[in-house]
Amino acid sequence: MASLVAAWKSVDERRKSGQRDLDTLRAQRNAANERMSKLDKKSTEFTTARDELKSLSTRIKEGEAELAKLETTAQDQLLEIPNAPHASVPEGKDEHDNPVLHTWGTKPTYTFTPKAHWELGESLGILDFEAGTRITGGRFTVLRGAASKLTRGLISFMLDLHTQHGYEEIWPPAIVKRASLRGTGQLPKFEQDLFKLEIPRGPDHDPDNDLFLSPTAEVQVTNLFNDQIVDGDNLPIRYCAYTPCFRAEAGAAGKDTRGLIRQHQFDKVELVKLTTPDASYGELEALRQDAERVLQTLGLHYRVVTLCTGDLGFHSAKTYDLEVWLPGQDAYREISSCSNFEDYQARRAKIRYRPNAGDKPRAVHTINGSGIAIGRTLVAILEQYQQADGSVVVPSALRPYVGGVERIVARS
Fold first, then answer.
1. Count of H helices and E strands in the chain?
2. Digit-coded pLDDT (tens) for 136-177
3. Whether domain 95-408 has CATH 3.40.50.300
């Protein structure tokens, strides 16, 4: 990151120097104009002043063109610089250095060897990987019967839970503009991870209006306030939203290609907060607890880790990962990331507030987290609640959302 910052600072200094030079030239032009206005138009002094004015105007136009290039270069470089980690983020190289904050519940035990969810889903006739591949391609899945009903139930269950705890429900578009993705930090760095819509455009099309399938509702909900000044008395603002999500590159090549862990299309309920800088880390802790409440209510064993500096996301200042236990894979897997971006997104998206009437606007802090990933919750239920006969018990809290069904059995 140091080299990126150094390159940006170099260009920014040139930009500032160019701006100072332009200001000087403009002052000289104004003085020349003033001087000319007092001269006889037939005098040699007037001719000399006019030639000087033309020369100044030419230099100003050249300077303005150069300054515009420097401003574009500085902005492009700035967008490539990741957020700075918060002082509380632990040092480390990768995911193996992430400390465990706490663990909830105990690992379920079995009198049999637990199966992975893809085996359970196929044997129960509720996960159709072959049909998804036939219809669309790899990493797309058709959910049948109970899997479809559980997914629909999980969406409603999560939205009900979060709205009961102070979040306003939002149902946003699934398609977003380039400018919105840039505002929340997905662009320009992660463009290859996105599904871009190829729509015929006219010659005057603004690239900022290019359209993409959204990778996360964080984009839509945060951009509800792009280029806005929020009333400080209304902060914090808390939203939850269900959306389908789309990622063209859903993880490392060859990793997690089986099952539902890394799909190109998946579902999430997202939590987003806008708040003041002094309150943002308290709001992050509260948001993490709100995401944890989903797993606790469903009775799913999980742990929380704090991401170290080497594993921290591009635009996050601090992140907690909730990792649910998957006995069929004998591993904890991430099911929610809860992050504080401080003012990183707000500066890009121009989201500001006035602390008091008449104050100069300042950037809000943005916080978000999965509340939680629907497909991975389905995976966790299948694996943690599996039975010796191959059936799966439905968590009691979810039963009212699936018509009272208590157990998933093989489709006849």
1. 10, 17
2. 999 999 999 999 999 999 999 999 999 999 999 999 999 999
3. no
